[in-house]
Amino acid sequence: xxxxxxxxxxxxxxxLLEEEIxxxxxxxxxxxxxxxxxxxxxxxxxxxxIEPGVDGIPEEKPNFTFKWKIFLAFLQIMTNLSVNLxxxxxxxxxxxxxxxxxxxxxxxxxxxxxxxxxxxxxDKLVITTVLPVCFLAxxxxxxxxxxxxxxxxxxxxxxxxxxxxxxxxxxELRLRLERSQARRQxxxxxxxxxxxxxxxxxxxILRTFICxxxxxxxxxxxxxxxxxxxxxxxxxxxxxSIMTVIYPVGIPLLFGxxxxxxxxxxxxxxxxxxxxxLYFAYRRHAYWFExxxxxxxxxxxxxxxxFPRQSQLPLGLSVVIFYMAIILVLNPYKRKxxxxxxxxxxxxxxxxxxxxxxxxxxxxxxSNRYDIAISIVLILMTVLAVGLFVLLSLQFVVxxxxxxxxxMLKIYTPSPTNHLQLRIYGINQAxxxxxxxxxxxxPLTESRFAYVQSPAYGLNTKVxxxxxxxxxxxxxx
Length: 477
Hints:
Layout: H1 2-27, H2 33-42, H3 64-84, H4 91-97, H5 107-111, H6 121-163, H7 168-206, E1 211-214, E2 217-220, E3 223-227, H8 231-261, H9 269-279, H10 289-301, H11 309-330, H12 336-359, H13 368-400, H14 402-412, H15 429-438, E4 440-441, E5 450-454, E6 459-463
Helix pairs in contact: 1-2, 1-7, 1-9, 3-12, 3-13, 4-13, 6-7, 7-8, 7-9, 8-10, 11-12, 12-13
């Protein structure tokens, strides 16, 4: 969680610097040192102007952040299905899958409150719904307000005092920019936090309304110590109803509003810094796909438990197949790696539900030996997804460490031929798409350097040294 939060903040900071470049060009302001360094990385000179809008500044290609989102959603779905469905899962597998409960940010389970006092489901309901509000309030008071009223004005005053070019207009414009960027960072952290807690909080709230009849009495399915339709249940139902509007319904509406508000400028650096966590992994025509993903996640983690037991697993299998078909037809992801990882995770969820359907057959009795065998199969399925994610994580770490990156380039660089195919690292996704559409390759000179020229941005991207008469192949991967 902390790793993804770090990556979200870091990526947001990069796009905020790009927004600062555009803003400073428009208002004739001097960019900060960090923005100047970013200009050098992009290859933008002082005499060049980058038009904001639909195309925007060349963006960094989607990376490990979005793979982590897919993997986290997979763990959230698996852990919730193992709890919410009335399936006799093997005890060995249930113990194994419980290790991944951290993906749900379950404070009550992580903190082991039961060791201090005996808690009922209603205690968990209140804690789970109140803590997010407390966290957001602390984030607002501890981060946003100090930035808005103290840190940003002080930073702007110090900047212009050191440059000796302070004017009321330029200082005011800089202050407006810095405050806007502080607001965007705050919104990005709020959206990321809501994305993390959405499955767990929605599942806990909706469990209030799921009851099971035993000996002519109705009990909460999630806690058989609590009766349904008694005085205590009737006291908490209005509270759970209000929380249902705030969390399971309110969070998707908030995300939808944010996407609708930014729909015409989804490639602008400021919009990416603010809400890129919601849409930047997807292609332009499917920028709204995160809402579809949230609906699928809500159904598999919460809504499926409302259906009769006999129809839960067949319905879940049908939903997973339908969702996989939508991904195959729509092709929403920018990168093939994200698309393949998501399809793999959905395949594992499908096999998990299929195994549950077999285990739930009342006419089939499994011995302890078969339970162990099924547990091993289910565990190996989960380990496959976890192992793939670990490999992707190692690839991300290698690409971030210059020494390891150079070492891997030496190992995997193909041997020189008449036409050398070279995968270019360091060119971001938007620039590569633009280059593939419009690029012209200048003749190679004796300096053994080539330049990819992009008319859309007027940029020259310097290619690493290659042999003369070689050809550079831009690869979307």
